[in-house]
Amino acid sequence: MAAQNPSAFAPKITDDYMEDLCANIKVGDRCEIDPGEKRGVVKYVGRAESLTPGFWVGVQFDEPFGKHDGMVKGVRYFDSPPLHGAMIRPDKVKVGDYPERDPFEEEEI
């Protein structure tokens, strides 16, 4: 059976995938993405019909680390400057007091 239909035994991602993790993520929250420690602001929380099932978080990064401007596969989820937007799974998003980094601040060695 698996040889005829290999996806028959693949785990199915439901429409509610990671919905519980979105309970504490709100549009306007400052956030940091793990891994990478990229910072930004939450611009969208919910399902993204143009992506795989489940819940997604749209983030506008402070710097141009993103992949788009809030439009994914022809669907606009939020507005951001070019290359500042990304759709990320909620388990990678930490919300809290994550101010913008000063690009001219010297890092301690």
TrEMBL record:
Highest taxon listed in the record's lineage: Eukaryota
Keyword DNA-binding in record: no
Main subcellular location: cytoplasm
GO biological process, one term: cytoplasmic microtubule organization
GO molecular function per UniProt: microtubule plus-end binding
UniProt keyword annotations, A-Z: Chaperone, Cytoplasm
SMART domains per the UniProt record, alphabetical: CAP_GLY
Cellular component, GO, one term: nucleus
Compartments it resides in: Cytoplasm
Domain CAP-Gly stretches: 47-89
Family: Belongs to the TBCB family.
Protein name (database record): CAP-Gly domain-containing protein
Native organism: Salix brachista
